[in-house]
Specification:
Order of helices and strands: EHEEHEHEHHEHHEEHEEEHHEEHH
Strand content: 15-25%
Oligomer: single chain
Number of strands: 13
Strand order of the largest sheet: 3-2-1-4-5
Radius of gyration: 20 Å
Number of helices: 12
Largest sheet: 5 strands, parallel
Low-confidence stretches: none
Length: 309
């Protein structure tokens, strides 16, 4: 019988299929849109929107797929895993991935574990923000960062009340909440962490990558990611390890951190419970430049989480 692994990977499909083929597996890929990375490499392919849960589940069942590797953190992929008929073994803990997906819940939980994150306020609507503007500006000074609690629109750095309100309005899509956050001027980096829930979590080192810089986020023209001392790198890795262990995030995740260079104080910005590993992903070359084959590590950790190794 063929050993087929199901794969839902978005932009990571190309690299993950290459690694699965190298391991001797055949791949049944769900492509959320035509021509998605890896579509030309998959042994079996279904092109359909990830919301078509019955079609996807039937596709896997026809191929006798038992295990499905989730290589994208897209909300539709997570909602698919949460479908009551999605009875496949995966490489993720859905509850923990959903926590990481909600920036507001994530920030509250890491604060409960005494982990630094920028100060923030949250609001359900514009009027509540307007009513509390005085309180916000008493605690936090411009510039500020405005973002939704989920990745519907990208964060924006704002310098005045009018821009704050305009940016906040964009957050209110798909029942999102508004987060108004302290702006930290500093040095960006990210730390990939592997945790199999049995041994202590392991850091793959500090990777010099800035999401704000690579995505050209509005207002973040000064964003940077520059080499830090070994002592500071260790402090940053220790913080990332504490996040993953405290929140019990399995598999291969990535913690984005910024260092306030004046106070030499690291702050956790967010956690990606599923790392984008595609050849054309925004962070792939940053891992490669530091001799980290992130897609190979993703496959090894995922196979272990699914009981294949």
């Amino acid at each position: 019988m063929e050993n087929i692994i199901g794969l839902i990977a978005g932009s990571s499909g190309d690299s993950l299929i290459d690694r699965l083929h190298f391991k001797g597996y055949k791949v049944a890929l769900i492509a959320g849109k035509k021509g998605e990375p890896g579509s030309d490499k998959a042994d079996y392919l279904l092109e359909t929107d990830l919301s078509n849960s019955n079609k996807i589940i039937n596709f896997f069942n026809r191929l006798n797929v038992k295990k499905v590797l989730i290589g994208t953190g897209h909300i539709k992929a997570l909602e698919l895993v949460g479908n009551r008929d999605f009875n496949f073994i995966t490489n993720i803990n859905l509850n923990r991935s959903m926590l990481a997906k909600d920036k507001l819940k994530f920030k509250k939980e890491i604060l409960a574990h005494n982990i630094y994150t920028p100060k923030f306020f949250s609001f359900d609507n514009i009027q509540s923000l307007i009513n509390k503007t005085e309180d916000v500006l008493y605690e936090l000074k411009f510039p500020l960062v405005v973002k939704p609690n989920k990745d519907i629109v990208l964060p924006v750095k704002v310098n005045n009340i009018e821009n704050m309100y305009d940016s906040a309005k964009l957050c209110l899509q798909s029942n999102n909440k508004i987060i108004v956050e302290e702006y930290i001027e500093g040095n960006d980096c990210t730390v990939p962490i592997y945790y199999n829930l049995k041994d202590s979590p392991k850091s793959l080192g500090v990777v010099y990558y800035s999401k704000a810089k690579e995505y050209k986020l509005n207002g973040f023209s000064e964003a940077k990611s520059e080499k830090m001392s070994p002592e500071i790198e260790q402090r940053i890795q220790d913080m990332a390890l504490k996040v993953v262990k405290s929140l019990n995030i399995p598999g291969l995740s990535r913690v984005d951190i910024i260092l306030d260079e004046k106070e030499l104080k690291p702050y956790v910005l967010e956690l990606n419970s599923i790392i984008v590993t595609g050849y054309n992903g925004s962070s792939y070359n940053f891992f490669k430049n530091q001799n980290i084959d992130i897609s190979a590590i993703m496959i090894d950790t995922s196979l272990e989480m699914m009981g294949e190794l």
